[in-house]
Design brief:
The protein has 337 residues and is an alpha+beta fold. The chain is 43% helix and 18% strand. The relative contact order is 0.15. Helix 7 packs antiparallel against helix 8. The strands form 2 sheets. The protein has a 7-stranded mixed beta sheet with strand order 1-9-2-3-6-4-5. Strands 7-8 form a two-stranded antiparallel sheet. The protein is globular and about 65 Å long. It contains 12 helices and 9 strands. The longest helix has 24 residues. It comes from Cotesia congregata (Parasitoid wasp). Keywords: ATP-binding, Kinase, Nucleotide-binding, Transferase. One of its GO terms (cellular component) is cytosol.
């Protein structure tokens, strides 16, 4: 069975009442733009990385969580090309391309970070898997409620190769710290001890690799705690999140004083753990609390934000802080007749 045929086995779900209301609104926009009804819907949740930052490109695991906030897509056939529209027309302009095969050209022709480029990147990736004769035009209406967004690999790669050259015969095949650990056949703590000895002359590189290896260890411990039923489960998870932030701040040096202050505020307001998160250098903070305390935690944190440094505009605070729980991953939903 080829990849295209595999897609026929994807389960099509029925939306619940809450989701149906949102899909109805998106359908109206789709019809007004394309003069036809969508054939199916897709829901793609946002995600937050609970722990495990700047270790994925080093060959180690991370621990992300799908959140409640999401992006909805209404999809239908078009005679040709790619046609995108966003429900928030006052913020995001429509995009039309007459040729689906050539829609990726806009990625190199224009440097502006238009919203539709994110979608086109996905289309370009899909086109690599789909035979050209099976491609057809598509219409897509998009609506999301994920808050607007708030690379670093060279130094850790250098550290890995310095250690590999010292300890391995075929050192040039090592590209990541994960490769290094695999070739050495050592545990994460043992690899860190080797790094400490070899990188005496490279204190900055040692700090980087120390973060990566200790963070990778924290991810494994985080997973183990999640799978347990200990009474102090959440307290232990929060402790790991705090250690992760300290490591990112002090060893990987990818935090910021403003982000550190947000973490401090969250902990002072009762969070069990808090840390920097977000793509690349972050810019967001994820905090862990219990369901019975979430309302008071959010209210206290908002008040701290409003009174700090002369006050923060109310609308900024309301948009910047939101609550979520773990949710299901991406799914396809049927249209209602």
């Amino acid at each position: 069975m080829n990849k295209c045929e595999d897609m026929e086995a994807v389960e099509i779900l029925k939306p619940d009442d809450i989701l149906s209301n949102r899909l109805d609104k998106l359908t109206k926009h789709f019809v007004s733009r394309f003069n036809n009804k969508p054939q199916f819907f897709t829901r793609v949740p946002g995600r937050v990385n609970l722990i495990g930052d700047h270790v994925d490109y080093c060959g180690f695991s991370v621990c992300p969580m799908a959140i409640e906030q999401d992006v909805l897509l209404a999809v239908g056939k078009a005679d040709s090309g790619l046609h995108l529209t966003n429900l928030e027309t006052d913020k995001y302009s429509d995009y039309d391309c007459d040729s689906l095969i050539n829609c990726g050209e806009v990625l190199t022709k224009s440097k502006e970070p238009h919203w539709y480029k994110y979608f086109i990147c996905g289309v370009v990736g899909a086109l690599e898997e789909i035979p050209e004769d099976k491609c057809q035009g598509i219409n897509v209406a998009i609506w999301g409620n994920i808050p607007p967004a708030s690379g670093l690999s060279s130094s850790s790669a250098s550290a890995a190769q310095i250690i590999a050259k010292e300890k391995l015969e075929k050192w040039d095949a090592v590209k990541t710290i994960g490769d290094l650990q695999k070739e050495l056949g050592t545990s994460l703590p043992e690899t860190l001890e080797i790094a400490k000895k070899v990188l005496l002359e490279y204190p900055t590189l040692y700090k980087r690799i120390k973060h990566v290896l200790s963070e990778a260890e924290r991810v494994l411990e985080f997973k183990s705690i999640c799978q347990s039923s200990d009474d102090d489960q959440l307290t232990r998870l929060g402790k790991l999140m705090n250690e992760s932030h300290e490591s990112l701040r002090d060893l990987y040096q990818c935090s910021h004083k403003s982000v550190d202050l947000l973490v401090e505020m969250a902990l002072e307001c009762g969070a069990l753990g808090a840390r920097i998160t977000g793509a690349g250098w972050g810019g967001c903070v994820v905090a862990l609390t219990t369901k019975d305390k979430v309302e008071s935690f959010v209210n206290d944190l908002k008040q701290r934000q409003r009174t700090f440094n002369g006050g923060v505009r109310t609308n900024c605070v309301e948009n910047a802080i939101f609550v979520t729980e773990p949710r299901a991953g991406a799914a396809i939903y049927e249209t209602r007749l």
